[in-house]
């Protein structure tokens, strides 16, 4: 795809994202929460409406593009062929419901499986993270630079303690500078983009939790792999780490000792 065509898509998507500022407040005011697999697995009208709204946007502007998203069946989608948008309409739904803060909207655009455009919109703080293939990553249109090397002993790391065994939690805590966990895979990842966290680990993400991060990792010189240090498949997902390159191997070494995590 040429630069002009890509810029056109970027302009339209960024405009679509600004329209959310007008609709989200009312959706939150009318919030209806339901559960999916269990009482902790939440979905709201906010998630559903944002996804529907983006689906309508695609139909209008790019009818040949496919949508691979959390709140729909994706059986008919071939994620590796053609123009595919992977969407998490709200990442951090628990935070939205319980705190009205620390959630985001995530979009990853792939052409024949190649990450081409990515967006993570931290709506409560009005911060838009964007990556464009070959052109870098941005926050609110300001270029982001590659984070400096962070050794594990100097790094804050982020993971869900509920799925780690005690010995692993203890080892990670003593090898790193400290621990923080936001509870939104997208926002925990943005901290790694900015060099605020050394690494974020999620042992059971779905494609929409990690699709957008591929391009940011590429453009910012970060490592994004499975927990076995192999390549990740964006359409299958599974246990993953996004990390500053200076602490990636050490985090994995600890995680893989003592069968340290559950999926
Ligand atoms: C969840 C959040 C959470 C992560 C879970 C995800 P959701 O996404 O990103 O931080 O630990 O694995 O499922 O359900 O809020 O979209
Ligand atoms: Ca999610
Ligand atoms: Ca979600």
Automatic annotation (TrEMBL):
Question: What superkingdom does the record give?
Answer: Bacteria
Query: CDD domains recorded for this chain?
Result: IMPase_like (cd01637)
Q: Which Pfam families match?
A: Inositol_P
Q: InterPro entries annotated for this entry?
A: Inositol_monophosphatase-like
Q: What is this protein called?
A: Inositol monophosphatase family protein
Q: Which organism is it from?
A: Staphylococcus nepalensis
């Amino acid at each position: 795809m040429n630069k002009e065509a890509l810029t056109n898509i970027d302009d339209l998507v960024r405009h679509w994202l600004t329209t959310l500022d007008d609709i989200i407040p009312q959706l939150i005011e009318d919030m209806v929460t339901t559960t999916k697999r269990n009482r902790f697995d939440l979905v709201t009208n906010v998630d559903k409406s944002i996804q529907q709204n983006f689906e309508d946007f695609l139909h209008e502007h790019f009818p040949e593009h496919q949508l691979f998203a959390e709140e729909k069946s994706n059986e008919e989608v071939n994620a590796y062929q053609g123009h595919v948008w992977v969407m998490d309409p709200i990442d951090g739904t628990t935070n939205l419901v319980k705190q009205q803060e620390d959630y985001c909207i995530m979009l990853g655009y792939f052409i024949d499986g190649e990450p081409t455009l990515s967006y993570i919109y931290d709506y409560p703080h009005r911060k838009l993270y964007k990556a464009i293939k070959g052109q870098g990553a941005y926050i609110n249109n300001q270029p982001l630079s590659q984070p400096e090397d962070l050794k594990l002993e100097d790094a804050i790391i982020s993971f869900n303690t509920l799925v780690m065994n005690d010995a692993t939690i203890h080892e990670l805590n003593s090898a790193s500078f400290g621990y923080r966990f936001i509870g939104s895979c997208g926002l925990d990842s943005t901290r790694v983009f900015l060099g605020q966290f050394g690494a974020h680990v999620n042992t059971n993400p779905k494609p929409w939790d990690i699709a957008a991060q591929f391009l940011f990792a590429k453009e910012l010189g970060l490592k994004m792999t499975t927990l076995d240090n192999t390549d990740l498949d964006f359409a299958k997902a599974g246990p993953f780490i996004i990390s500053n390159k200076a602490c990636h191997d050490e985090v994995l070494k600890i995680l893989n000792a003592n069968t340290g995590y559950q999926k």
